[in-house]
Amino acid sequence: MNSAESVETLHGRMAEIAAGHPAVPATFWSVSETVDYAELDRRSRVAAAALVRRGVARGEPVGILCPNAPEFLTSLFGIAAAGGAATPLPLPAGARHLGGYPQKLAAIVAAAGMRKVLMSHRFADLAALLGDAVDVELIDTATLLSATDTDDVPLPVLSAHDLAIVQFTSGSTATPKGVRLTHHNVLSGLAAIRTGIALDLADTGGFWLPLFHDMGLFGTLSAILRGIPAHVWSPMAFVKDPARWLAEFATSGTTITAMPNFGYEALLAAIPPERVPDYDLSHWRIAFNGSEPISRDVVTAFCARFAPAGFAPTTMFGVYGMAEATLAVAFPPLGREPLFEWVDRATLADDAQAQRVSPDAPGARAVAGVGSAVDGLRLRIVGQHSDQPDCQQDNQHHELPDGAVGEILIQGPSVTDGYLTAAPETVAGLFTDGWLRTGDLGYLRDGELFVTGRSKDMITVRGVNYYAQDVEAAVRDLDGVFKGRCTAATDPDGADVIALIAETELTGAAAAALADRIKARVAAELGLAAVEVYPVAPRSIPRTSSGKLQRLAARELVATRKH
Predict the structure, then answer these.
(1) 403 C-beta neighbours (distance < 10 Å), count
(2) Alpha-helical runs (H) found in 307-460
(3) Are 339 and 368 in contact (CB under 8 A)?
(4) Distance of alpha carbon 265 from alpha carbon 481, whole angstroms
(5) Where do the DSSP E strands lie in 195-345?
(6) Strand, coil or helix: 240
(7) How far apart are CA 43 and CA 463, in angstroms?
(8) Ordered DSSP codes for 93-112
(9) With helix as H, strand as E and coil as C, how does 496-514 read?
(10) Average pLDDT, rounded, for the chain
């Protein structure tokens, strides 16, 4: 094995898997295709040779515009073997989002300095839509794989510290930023996942999240680069029919999957108790729950609902991760049931202290425990960052005691060294003494990490702090709120109120009455009267690639309504 095939690289590891597990398949349900790992490796080498001929430079970001299909993975490993940095690009969430898609893609292309994009042969209509809006060379994946003479094309000699992947974060909008991940970062992150769940050859991975999203991508790679079968669905297959997806998941014998909290909520809504015995979920070993706040109500209901199908409470695996750490940051111990701690909501927000209370205490809030740092990674909690110069020392270096809420900092071999971005000032201060500032808030208790929210989602109204998710949780179960979809944000005009945007099918007087009920509920639950409610049509609130509601982008809806 030469240096270009070293197991220190992503494609080198793929070659090793192809040699050791050649007939193990990856099954792509939504396009009815299967490819084994020997063939995936062969196709990737064909793609790599073609890209070298096209002049891909070492470390050059090369875009991937593909669905959850074999050509996505072929492109990823092919770009890596050619010396480029595979850069998954987001796809439009649906027809309603096509209008602004070329501009969004153009912003990412510009931020990355991208010259080439590999586009799936299934996307002829999308290529026409992009037209001249995106100034790159679009390379059809079918054309890329049509070459057969690869032996005369030497692949570059790469090291573990060459750039392998640029992962644009799911919330990227006006100023996109791409997480830089070396081969060493990626393989370290996958090793941490493998160790954290004791992934072995008896397992099978299955994922529906988009492959351009970090949880979908690294979840799928954790299966493939372990040499176990992988099952891949499209996001729309899950969103349109969660019950069908679960039936296929059960039929496939998959043991491991991952999704945000809303995915488990969608399964609860789609499958009534009387249908649960139709499914055999006894093989399900790990149900990753991450990428957004973990709801105790949803977790408890899911475990109870699907117990008759063989779903064990210890299968629910609440975790914390981010693209900047090649996904995995904190995992709970294996075999433990979900852990939640009840704390006083007001003390948490105002005093940054997690004061334990009884579940039935007024203002009690359940916070999920997500375990401790994964293998090879370290984390600490420090005072929240301040832009004031005289506060820098205390905020950036003071490690907090148990129960004190602060910013989560991480360090380790899977952690990025920075971003690709057209606006470097937007990521200034990313590191503090070699520790990555995550922007997330949390606290430790006896070695257990509890994540309380994003620092940018803390809203201060009339001198009092509120977590946006607390405001949302208070009202999302009200009749009239479409599928519980609502989001809280600061007022775009700077008014000292919280703007709450709620999706609803109601109009006119009925929508106004819903707004009054929302205000009354927030006042009763949180003691907060300074709320302005903005009813919007269903599916109006912008979402990230993983399906999370975007609070900051949702403010634009408010601005539109007010002006």
Answers:
(1) 18
(2) 345-351, 392-397
(3) yes
(4) 15
(5) 205-207, 230-232, 256-259, 286-289, 316-318, 320-322, 327-331, 340-344
(6) helix
(7) 59
(8) SSGGGSTTHHHHHHHHHHHH
(9) CCEEEEEECCCCHHHHHHH
(10) 88
Structure tokens at 485: 């979809």
Rounded CA gap, 431 and 433, in Å? 6
> Which residue in this structure is represented by tokens 């890596």?
80
- What is the pTM for the complete model shown? 0.86
Reference 489, options 524, 449, 536; nearest CA is 536
Among 50, 85, 29, 169, CA closest to 544: 169
Contact (Cβ atoms closer than 8 angstroms) between residue 164 and residue 181: yes
Angle at which helix 296-306 crosses helix 261-270, to 10 degrees, equals 40
Do the beta carbons of residue 258 and residue 288 sit within 8 Å? yes
Q: Residue 7 corresponds to which tokens in the numbers above?
A: 């197991």
Pairing of strands 340-344, 364-368: antiparallel
C-alpha dihedral, 96 to 269 to 339 to 452, nearest 10°: 30
Report the DSSP beta bridge partners of residue 26: 35, 230
Q: Quickly tell me which residue has 């999957």 as its tokens.
A: 257
**What crossing angle do the helices spanning 183-196 and 214-224 adopt, rounded to 10°?**
80
Decide if pLDDT at 552 tops 70. no
CA angle in degrees (0–180, nearest 5) for 462-466-472: 125
d(CA 517, CA 521): 6
- What's the number of CA atoms in the CB half-sphere (13 Å) around residue 348? 30
pLDDT 10s digits, 513-537:
999 899 888 888 777 788 888 888 8
The residue whose two tokens read 């690639």 is 545
Phi-psi region of 254 (alpha: psi -120 to 50; beta: other; left: phi over 0): beta
pLDDT at 177 (0 to 100): 87
How far is CA 101 from each of CA 93, 94, 98, 155, rounded to the nearest angstrom?
9, 10, 5, 34
